[in-house]
Amino acid sequence: MDVVALVGASGTGKSHRALIVAHENNIDAIIDDGLLIKDSKIIAGYSAKKEPSKIRAVKRAIFMDSEHAAEVRQAIHAVQPQRILILGTSVNMIQKITTALDLPEISKVIRIEEIATKAEIAKARESRLKEGKHIIPVPTIELKPHFTGYLIDPLEIFFKKSHHKKRRLGEKSIVRPTFSYYGKLLISDAAIAAIVDYVAVSDLAITRTGQINIKNSHDREKGISISLDVTIRYGNVIWEVVHKAQARIKKTVEYMTGMMVKEVNIEVKRLSIE
């Protein structure tokens, strides 16, 4: 197992670039602020970003808690990554992490100054200081169960919120990373509608869908709204069928697209007696 270190001062954009660094260096697992991340999922750990004080956050990040360290060690043994990227403010900090987790010595050190310009680092620092925003390199859908009550934004909003009213949840806000490190990705309404149609009729109680509308909110943090009309087979409990369909559609669209779904409105237009 190889250990690669990504080193930079706090707030310089390490987490923001973690996925890109991992991709370019064939790394299949990341350790960042107390979390073990693999295949864009949080495998184990407890985030230092949830700690109430800086001292406790540092202790969490370097795995000083024995139970925390044991949990992550066990997870590493279970998933058997070939290369691990560890993020830290110094080589010394990363060495403490490797010692706590019984990992091999660092084989390669990448410094943030090598992969980000001075302007990019300055902008990251400014956003951290002014908005208290922290990035965790996993998609929103993966963050939600772990950070209930925290603000989770798409990354494109990360540097574009100066014109919005500032919102603070203490001083801890979570920002998800870009959806992909391959470039810009656009998902058309037609693609989302196709997913909605397939998921809706997967229940035999719904015989067909009619018009499907996808509405994007002007405030992109709130997510998309989905509206559709359906035909339900006669004899089924309408409320129960619709409620289950709403939950399935929301879960599947969020999982497949990475988008937030604000609401799913279903109108029963007709009953089928086939």
Tell me what you see in this structure.
The protein is of the alpha/beta class and 274 residues long. The protein has two domains: 2-175, Rossmann fold, CATH 3.40.50; 189-272, Cation efflux protein, cytoplasmic domain (Alpha-Beta Plaits), CATH 3.30.70. The protein has helices at 14-24, 54-61, 66-79, 91-100, 112-115, 118-131, 140-143, 189-200, 238-257, and strands at residues 2-7, 29-32, 35-38, 41-45, 83-88, 106-111, 133-135, 152-153, 173-175, 206-216, 224-233, 261-272. The protein has a six-stranded mixed β-sheet, with helices on both faces. Strands 7-9-8 form a three-stranded parallel β-sheet. A three-stranded mixed β-sheet has the order 10-11-12, with helices on one face. Helix 8 (189-200) packs across helix 9. The longest helix has 20 residues, at 238-257. The radius of gyration is 22 Å and the shape is elongated.
Q: Can you lay out the helices and strands and say which pair or pack?
A:
Layout: E1 2-7, H1 14-24, E2 29-32, E3 35-38, E4 41-45, H2 54-61, H3 66-79, E5 83-88, H4 91-100, E6 106-111, H5 112-115, H6 118-131, E7 133-135, H7 140-143, E8 152-153, E9 173-175, H8 189-200, E10 206-216, E11 224-233, H9 238-257, E12 261-272
Helix pairs in contact: 8-9
